[in-house]
Every structure is written in structure tokens, then in C-alpha cells.
């Protein structure tokens, strides 16, 4: 069984860094930062390296 893809999100406004899964990544792109509400784009979410 493979583990879900994770991504590292860094907010351009509040600079918070959070590791998220695919579902949360989609939510962030639609709703913005969960901490400060700033709009975000694909550039603010990077694929996390796999172990």
C-alpha cells in the first residue's frame, strides 16, 4: 500500500508552514490560508520529498 502524497504549504503572508495531503491542498487553493485567510497559488505548495 502506498502512502498518500504530501505537500508543504508556506503562506506568503503569515509565513506559516504546514504539511498537507492532497485533499487539504485542494482546499487551500480554493479557500486560502487556514491561519490568516490570504489567497494562495500553486507556487505556495511544494511536493514533499518521499522517504
Structure description:
By secondary structure, the protein is an alpha+beta fold. It contains one helix and three strands, in the order ββαβ. It has a three-stranded antiparallel β-sheet with strand order 2-1-3. A hairpin with a 6-residue loop joins strand 1 (6-10) and strand 2 (17-21).
Task: Summarize model confidence as the mean pLDDT.
Answer: 89
Shape: globular
Strand/helix succession = EEHE
- Straight-line distance between termini: 14 Å
Spatially, the strands of the biggest sheet line up as 2-1-3
Helix content: 10-25%
Give unreliable regions as ranges.
Answer: none
Beta content comes to 25-35%
What is the radius of gyration computed over CA atoms, rounded to a whole number of angstroms?
A: 11 Å
How many E-type strands?
3
Broad structural category: alpha+beta
Number of helices: 1
Largest sheet, in brief, is:
3 strands, antiparallel
Structure summarized in a few sentences:
By secondary structure, the protein is an alpha+beta fold. Helices cover 20% and strands 25% of the residues. The chain is built from one helix and three strands; from the N terminus they run ββαβ.
Question: Which properties best describe this structure?
Answer:
three-stranded antiparallel sheet, 51 residues, alpha+beta, globular, 1 helix
Amino acid at each position: 500500500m502506498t502512502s498518500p502524497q504530501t505537500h508543504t504549504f508556506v503562506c506568503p503572508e503569515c509565513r506559516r508552514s504546514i504539511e498537507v495531503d492532497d485533499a487539504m491542498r485542494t482546499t487551500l487553493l480554493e479557500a486560502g490560508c487556514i491561519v490568516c485567510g490570504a489567497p494562495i497559488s500553486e507556487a505556495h505548495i511544494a511536493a514533499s520529498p518521499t522517504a
